[in-house]
Amino acid sequence: MDRDLDPVEVRVLGCLIEKQRTTPDQYPLSLNALRNACNQTTNRNPIVAYDEEMLRGALQKLGRRRYSRLTTGHTSRAAKYRHLLDEALPLDAAEQAIMAVLFLRGEQTPGELKQRTERMQPFDGIEGLQDCLTGLIDKGFVSELARRPGQKEERFKQNMSDDLDPADVPAGAEMPAVAAAVVPPPPRRDERLDKLEGDVLALRTELSALRDEFAALRAELGA
Q1: CB of 174 within 8 A of CB of 46?
Q2: What's the rounded Cα separation, in Å, for the pair 183 and 153?
Q3: Which contacts (CB < 8 Å, 24+ apart) does range 93-97 have?
Q4: How far apart are CA 212 and CA 96, in angstroms?
């Protein structure tokens, strides 16, 4: 899995997955349709204004990665584009839907993912979505993030831009925001160790008391 996708590549991939699911009669996408999809002001974060030159550059890079290709529509000879994630990456339809939302909206909670994947991939409750997220984490495509102050739900991010060099971000494209630290696994406490630490503390307290009593006795005897 490539981990150095720039923001334009990420947006393009997300749009191709989304439009394949939500408007299949208009998929594959022409360059103009792709530009309109990338620059939507709804269901996108951040809002961008990519031009065709930026999109061509992203499509060339995605093509070299074998993540997309130039094709033609069913009823048109115009150049159109499609993604190849079905062939290039071990992602099923449900996993692709989650990745698309993370590509298009950035960090998300399970509740947000459940709501925003509905048009692309209905899940069997939040538990079904959580199972899919766990699979993506196991495959290395997604990471869980620390909760933000005041938030009750954990958040998740896509990992396909983790190794991006800021120098490789196209002019006019925003660098992906630095995510919060990945949640470390909670340390496991050994009950025997807890008991041992408690016993040591009690012995130290008892020894200190005995020393005080012995010092007082010596003073009383004039030693």
Answers
A1: yes
A2: 13
A3: 93/121, 94/121, 94/123, 94/132, 95/132, 95/135, 95/136, 95/141, 96/17, 96/121, 97/17, 97/21, 97/121
A4: 70
- b/e burial code for range 87-111 (CB count within 10 A of at least 16 → b): eebebeebbbbbbbbbbbbbbbbbe
Q: What is the layout of strands, in order, in the sheet containing 79-83?
A: 29-30, 79-83, 68-72
Residue 158: beta bridge partners?
142
Give the separation between CA 136 and CA 110, rounded to whole angstroms. 13
d(CA 223, CA 217): 9
Give tens-digit pLDDT for 100-136: 999 999 999 999 999 999 999 999 999 999 999 999 9
Task: In whole angstroms, give the CA distance from residue 155 to residue 2.
Answer: 22
Q: Name the amino acid, one letter, at 131.
A: D
Ranges of each domain in the chain = 7-168, 187-223
- What SS3 class is residue 68? strand
The two structure tokens encoding residue 155: 């958040």
Residue 56: CB atoms within 10 A of its CB come to 14
Which pair of structure tokens corresponds to residue 120?
A: 């692309």
| Yes or no: domain 7-168 corresponds to CATH 1.20.1260.10 | no
| Residue 68: per-residue pLDDT | 97
